Amino acid sequence: MHRALIAGAAYFAVVFAFGFALGTIRTLFVTPRLGELVAVAAETPAMLAASWWSCGWALRRLGVAPRSGDRWAMGGLALALLLIAEIGVSVLLAGRSVEQHFALYRELPAQIGLAAQLLFAVMPAVRRGV
């Protein structure tokens, strides 16, 4: 289980760093030209691909056992860290309150992002043969 938790933290860190960079590009350059919905829809496949790759890397590199509990623990920790980091970015960098952050989930772009985050959390459990 220890390896699974370390892998979850590593998985989160890699995907968060990629998402932060891609999200900055989306926010500054794509959203003003195409709108939030199109920008998020365009970003999501890249984020899911990065998540799939990062998940496999963390599983292999850190030798996470194929046991279901270890894989779910890895994904659960990664998701928890991602959601905490996302709230932090929303509050500290975007200047929203926590309530305003959660209100974003009423809109389709944030719902697409949340669906992708849930897939991110499930990836360690569904990746086999790694």
Task: Name its key features.
130 residues; 84% helix; 5 helices; mainly alpha
Concise summary:
The mean pLDDT is 96. By secondary structure, this protein is mostly helical. The protein has five helices and no strands.
* Percent strand: under 5%
Mean pLDDT: 96
E-strand count:
0
Instruction: Return the structural class.
Output: mainly alpha
Poorly predicted segments: none
**Total number of domains:** 1
Helix content: over 70%
Estimated radius of gyration: 15 Å
What is the distance, rounded to the nearest whole angstrom, between the alpha carbons of the first and last residues? 17 Å
List the secondary-structure elements in sequence, H or E.
HHHHH
